[in-house]
């Protein structure tokens, strides 16, 4: 089999393609011949050494896979050889063969191709957890989505459209036309305008019910101010720490120094909530994830959304994929093809 390894922390050129023997599934596992694997910003943070959940190098990154089952371990009740599947791999996703516990896989029907299967699991599950489970999204709510043009941002936009929410999204100017066609109500050029002022103007200074914040630092304070009473600030990333392709300890510590502190008394007085979402901590809660994924698959089967694949790269082009993602060029998902 072929795998892409992070050999050490650093620039994208630390990603190297290696060959190894095909793995044998343990009891309860399924071996998948991978046809597509998703690339996410968590992979970039891990490569840079900024992801506390990632193992120390060398390791194989990647969480999202789609392909076909070619070998089934003992005690697997619901899959057989030849089944088309998609789902999660706890790392090792940048491979053309991978073994995963059967609970982390879902059947892929004929109307879902491998690229869309690899683009769906993490982005849509994370967006669903934030909006539907922890954000209590309701029709008519106003939602501010940062990084609206990324994989999670587009997934959040799709869910907001299904529920019937009004959406505000920050994105680079070259993504605006696409986002408007996709259904984003208000698109904001965060590079040239103060999004806090724009949202206040658009809402008559009433604010929004939900903010999805993946940046961290000073943005947390601004987004907290944008919440109306009963609003929820949902934090799920610290992309502000990744200011370049190489890890900067100065940027990391400056971001940590800017983290605000919310006391219970302040939250009670403001009638606001601050919620943290750390998806890697849910690996041992697969029953929850399967429950949430059932609703996402139902929406997909009803053709209420389709993941947008921005660009595909070959497995040996993983470094180029990381460059592309880190330069914020992507609109939607980036996928590797073995």
List keywords for this structure.
Quinone Oxidoreductase, Chain A, domain 1; 7-stranded mixed β-sheet; 11 helices; 338 residues; Rossmann fold; 6-stranded parallel β-sheet; globular; alpha/beta
Folded structure, characterized:
By secondary structure, the chain is an alpha/beta fold. It has two domains: 2-120 and 307-337, Alpha-Beta Complex (Quinone Oxidoreductase, Chain A, domain 1), CATH 3.90.180; 123-280, Rossmann fold (3-Layer(aba) Sandwich). Helix content is 31%, strand content 26%. It has helices at residues 41-48, 114-119, 121-134, 151-163, 176-182, 195-202, 218-225, 249-257, 264-270, 286-301, 318-326; strands at residues 2-6, 15-19, 29-39, 64-72, 84-88, 97-101, 105-107, 142-145, 166-171, 186-189, 208-213, 227-235, 273-276, 309-314, 333-337. The strands form three sheets. Strands 3, 4, 5, 6, 7, 14 and 15 form a seven-stranded mixed β-sheet that branches. It has a six-stranded parallel β-sheet with strand order 10-9-8-11-12-13, sandwiched between helices. Helix 3 (121-134) packs across helix 4 and helix 3 (121-134) packs across helix 10. The longest helix is centred in the last third of the chain and has 16 residues, at 286-301.
């Amino acid at each position: 089999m072929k795998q892409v390894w992070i050999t050490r922390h650093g620039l994208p050129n630390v990603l190297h393609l290696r060959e190894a023997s095909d793995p044998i599934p343990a009891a309860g596992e399924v071996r998948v011949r991978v046809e597509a694997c998703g690339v996410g910003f968590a992979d970039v943070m891990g490569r840079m050494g900024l992801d506390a959940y990632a193992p120390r190098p060398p390791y194989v990154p990647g969480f999202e896979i789609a392909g076909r089952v070619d070998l089934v371990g003992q005690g697997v009740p619901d899959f057989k050889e030849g089944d088309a599947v998609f789902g999660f791999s706890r790392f090792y996703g940048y491979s053309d063969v991978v073994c995963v516990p059967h609970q982390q896989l879902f059947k892929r029907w004929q109307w879902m191709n491998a690229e869309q299967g690899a683009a769906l699991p993490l982005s849509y599950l994370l967006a669903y957890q934030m909006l539907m489970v922890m954000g209590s999204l309701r029709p008519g709510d106003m939602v501010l989505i940062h990084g609206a043009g990324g994989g999670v941002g587009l997934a959040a936009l799709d869910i907001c459209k299904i529920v019937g929410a009004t959406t505000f999204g920050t994105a680079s100017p070259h993504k605006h036309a696409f986002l408007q066609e996709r259904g984003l109500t208000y698109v904001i050029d965060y590079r040239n305008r103060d999004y806090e002022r724009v949202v206040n103007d658009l809402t008559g200074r009433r604010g929004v019910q939900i903010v999805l914040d993946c940046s961290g630092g000073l943005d947390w304070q601004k987004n907290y101010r944008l919440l109306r009473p009963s609003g929820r600030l949902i934090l799920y990333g610290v992309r502000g720490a990744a200011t370049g392709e190489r890890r900067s300890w100065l940027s990391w510590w400056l971001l940590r120094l800017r983290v605000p502190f919310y006391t219970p008394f302040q939250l009670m007085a403001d009638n606001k909530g601050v919620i943290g979402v750390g998806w890697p901590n849910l690996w041992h809660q697969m029953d929850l994830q399967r429950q949430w994924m059932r609703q996402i698959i139902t929406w997909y089967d009803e053709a209420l959304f389709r993941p947008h694949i921005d660009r595909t790269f070959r497995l040996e082009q993983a470094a180029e994929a990381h460059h592309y993602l880190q330069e914020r060029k992507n609109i939607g998902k980036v996928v590797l093809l073995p």
